[in-house]
Amino acid sequence: MVNNKEFAYDSERNIQTDFARNMTYEEYLKLDDILSAQHRLSDHHDEMLFIVIHQVSELWMKLILHEIHSAIDCIRQDDFSSAFKRLARVSKIQNQIISAWDVLSTLTPAEYIEFRDALGQASGFQSYQYRLIEFALGYKTPHILKIYQKNSELYAVLKEAFGAPGLYDVAIQALARAGFPISSEIVERDFSIPYNEDESVKNAWMKVYQNVDKYWELYELAEKFVDIEDWFQQWRFRHMKTVERIIGFKSGTGGSSGVSYLKKVLDHRFFPELWEIRTEL
Ligand code: HEM
Ligand SMILES: N[C@@H](CC(=O)c1ccccc1NC=O)C(=O)O
């Protein structure tokens, strides 16, 4: 932030350093922007909790994306130790957003219902950062893009992320570079097509897990992925249970069946082979 070009225009006069020296806490953190963005649509006391929980979750999602994208770059360069640091951080953040459900669970059905109508058709279903995380983890469901069709700028960002290789794709490429016989259809696949389980990928991970000492980096990478998927599923589960606790089986404002939809999403796996091999090891 401090290196922002706006402030780095006169290096001779050291304007940037001067600015940094005089800068206050709230200027650096843009607290005016962040703390003036909680606009309740009702005068119900608990709507503040609802807004803050979402905003906090979105901020953490921003950091998750930052870390995952960096981890993807690191894996592409076979820089595994840096990737481990990024991915370990992702899991810790996931832990934070899961804990947020404890706070939201203090909201009762009677309290929520008082401002639910004010939310109209808005829903977490539309969270584009959540979708960018799903894409970066390789979960590409084509109908999801349609949600954003009306916003051309956002649509372009999401479409690009949709077609880009995800975390699992670059790990599979690393397996191929390490000499594992990965089917060429997988290595050169169209990344905008949902990933389907593959036998050559499964065999490669099996070998990695059976020869941990030899393939320690790939093994550690796989275990970081399992951590992330595990936490992701726990987030989905806590969301589903919190929703059931607050709205029961009412349908969702986003147009879905509600809890039944959220339960169905729990069946999805990001890294299927890493779960499958556990039965066979
Ligand atoms: C009172 C609290 C909440 C209720 C009742 C609720 C309800 C729902 C429902 C019913 C859906 C399904 C889509 C729909 O038809 O609307 C959904 C989706 C979603 N919600 Fe929430 N939610 C709550 C809090 C949160 C919070 C705090 C977050 C954090 C950002 C969140 C993020 C999401 C996301 C990302 C989806 C899409 C899930 C997917 O498609 O797999 N929700 N929510
Ligand atoms: N889908 C929720 C509404 C909801 O939770 C929501 C509404 C606006 C902004 C974020 C939301 N959070 C998660 O879905 C419901 O059906 O009550």
Automatic annotation (TrEMBL):
Keywords from the named record: Dioxygenase, Heme, Iron, Metal-binding, Oxidoreductase, Tryptophan catabolism
Enzyme class, broadest EC rank: oxidoreductase
Gene3D superfamilies hit by this protein: 1.20.58.480
GO biological process: L-tryptophan catabolic process to acetyl-CoA; L-tryptophan catabolic process to kynurenine
Pfam families linked to this entry: Trp_dioxygenase
Binding residue positions for substrate: F50, I51, V52, I53, H54, Y112, R116, T253
EC number: 1.13.11.11
Cofactor note (record): Binds 1 heme group per subunit.
Record-listed heme binding positions: H239
InterPro entries recorded: Trp/Indoleamine_2_3_dOase-like (IPR037217), Trp_2-3-dOase_bac (IPR017485), Trp_2_3_dOase (IPR004981)
GO molecular function: heme binding; L-tryptophan 2,3-dioxygenase activity; metal ion binding
Reaction equations catalysed: L-tryptophan + O2 = N-formyl-L-kynurenine
Origin: domain of life: Bacteria
Pathway named in the protein's UniProt entry: Amino-acid degradation; L-tryptophan degradation via kynurenine pathway; L-kynurenine from L-tryptophan: step 1/2
Reported cofactor(s): heme
Subunit structure, as described in the record: Homotetramer.
PANTHER family (alphabetical): TRYPTOPHAN 2,3-DIOXYGENASE
Its job: Heme-dependent dioxygenase that catalyzes the oxidative cleavage of the L-tryptophan (L-Trp) pyrrole ring and converts L-tryptophan to N-formyl-L-kynurenine. Catalyzes the oxidative cleavage of the indole moiety.
Family designation: Belongs to the tryptophan 2,3-dioxygenase family.
Record-linked HAMAP family: T23O
Protein name: Tryptophan 2,3-dioxygenase
Biological source species: Terrihalobacillus insolitus
